[in-house]
Amino acid sequence: MRICDRWIQEGTTDRRGRSHPPKYTTSREDRQIVRMAVTDRSVTSRTVAQHIDTVTHHSVFARTIRRRLQQSGLSARRSLLGLPYP
């Protein structure tokens, strides 16, 4: 459909199709996820997902939590299991 035809029929020139799905978490949930990760560095993404589910009744996958933390500039940390051999 051409832009002129779309304007006449729909009254807008915006494209309908998007290449990505809508964001699953709200900006408020994103801030809460980041706040939890910053205050307690040992918290896991599954724990954060369970907390978000209990507080907002909105289930979120652990992968979504990791993606939001990565988007905000936080990276995953591995706990120190032991000192390496010299």
UniProtKB/TrEMBL annotation:
* Pfam families per record: HTH_Tnp_Tc3_2
Q: Name one GO molecular function term.
A: DNA binding
Provide a GO biological process annotation.
DNA transposition
InterPro entries (alphabetical):
Transposase_Tc1-like
Q: Which domain of life is it from?
A: Eukaryota
Question: Which residue range or ranges hold the Transposase Tc1-like domain?
Answer: 30-79
Query: What name does UniProt use for this protein?
Result: HTH_Tnp_Tc3_2 domain-containing protein
Task: Identify the species of origin.
Answer: Trichonephila clavipes
Annotated gene: NCL1_13602
